[in-house]
Write a structure and sequence with these properties.
Shape: elongated
CATH superfamily of the largest domain: Vaccinia Virus protein VP39
Largest sheet: 6 strands, mixed
Strand content: 15-25%
Number of helices: 10
Radius of gyration: 21 Å
Helix content: 25-40%
Number of domains: 2
Order of helices and strands: EHEHEHEHEEHHEEEEHHHH
Structural class: alpha/beta
CATH topology of the largest domain: Rossmann fold
Distance between the termini: 10 Å
Number of strands: 10
CATH architecture of the largest domain: 3-Layer(aba) Sandwich
Strand order of the largest sheet: 2-1-3-4-6-5
Length: 332
């Protein structure tokens, strides 16, 4: 049995995006020794957060694993477009769906002890569940005891409804046959008021062209006569999601942040406001001092996209904390 003092463990942040997974692990004492990301805009934001000297190993499918330093753990939010409804659910037929094999190759070549992988909930039933079965089979063949569960970010310290599937892997020789990992219990819900706090002039009113678009949207055949704008404005922190046809309302929660979803509004002090990039980062669990580093520095459209692509820091942190707590219990 090995000792699992997290301060001695190193990890690489694969498919890193802007580093939410990294933060979840670092908050538990692990040390990041590099990342892998091919999106140039995400890399710019990542470096604003963590420093220009950070090593990017680039496309993980092209990495020469012999040139990677030794490390203990992998975290990866591997591309989900090929498994999600938005991405037309092409799955393993899409080359993005093959990235799981690139990750497994790295696991094997580096003899990694642990991994955390994240993907969209839709992965579980893609191709009638066959894709999911293939992934679990391949991870098992690679020598890992794997646990998986769909968790919702709203249960782990942020008011965002975000269901994702998480895979926890532990090399089989490190734990007994009867080892069981239990995913973290739900936490008490938090108030959306603590997250919708941007003070920039982002009011959504009749001075903005986008407001006219919103009014036309409210008058379309799906929404005409169903809602009263004046009534909306009396309800502070009412969250409004404008979709292709229908409009959805939320109380003390925000719908899933997505790459293509920039139509989230909310009411504050009797005015409509657009959800900002800064607020989107907070809703993914990024701390305020870090989010402020890119607020007004990275364009809003990029921050909104990057937050929509990110993992939730709090959820990864809770998963990691539970993993090493369980491992330590088995050592004693």
């Amino acid at each position: 049995m090995i000792k699992t003092k997290t301060k001695n463990l190193k990890f690489i942040d694969f498919c890193s995006g802007i580093g939410a997974g990294r933060l979840g692990l670092e908050n538990n004492g692990l040390s990041c020794i590099g990342f892998s990301e091919i999106d140039n805009q995400a890399e710019i934001t990542y470096r604003k957060f963590f420093g220009e000297e950070e090593k990017n190993y680039g496309d993980l499918m092209k990495i020469d694993t012999k040139k990677l330093p030794d490390f203990d753990m992998m975290i990866a939010g591997f591309p989900c477009q090929s498994f999600s409804v938005i991405g037309q659910r092409k799955g393993m037929q899409d080359k993005r769906g093959q990235i799981i094999y690139g990750l497994i190759k790295i696991m094997l070549d580096k003899n990694l002890k642990y991994f955390i992988l994240e993907n969209v909930k839709g992965l579980t039933n893609h191709d009638n569940g066959n894709t999911f079965k293939v992934i679990l089979k391949e991870l098992d063949k690679a020598g890992y005891k794997v646990f998986h569960k769909v968790l919702n970010s709203i249960d782990y310290g942020v008011p965002q409804m975000r269901e994702r599937i998480y895979f926890i892997g532990i090399r089989k020789d490190l734990v007994p046959e009867n080892f069981v990992y239990l995913f973290p219990e739900r936490q008490n819900r938090v108030s959306v008021k603590d997250f919708l706090i941007d003070t920039k002039e982002l009011e959504f009113d009749d001075k903005k062209e986008s407001y006219e678009t919103f009014l036309r949207y409210m008058k379309n055949k799906y929404n005409h006569g169903r809602y009263d704008l004046d009534d909306f404005l009396t309800k502070d922190y009412l969250v409004i999601d404008t979709r292709q046809s229908d409009l959805r309302l939320y109380d003390n929660k925000v719908p899933t942040l997505r790459v293509g979803r920039h139509g989230i509004l909310y009411v504050k002090n009797g005015k409509f406001r657009k959800l900002s990039g800064y607020e989107s980062l907070l809703l993914q669990g990024f701390p305020k001092q870090l989010a402020k580093k890119v607020d007004g520095v990275i364009e809003e459209i990029h921050l909104l996209k990057q937050a929509g692509n990110a993992m939730t820091v709090n959820t990864i942190g809770a998963i990691t904390r539970e993993l090493f707590k369980t491992l330590e219990q088995h050592e004693n």
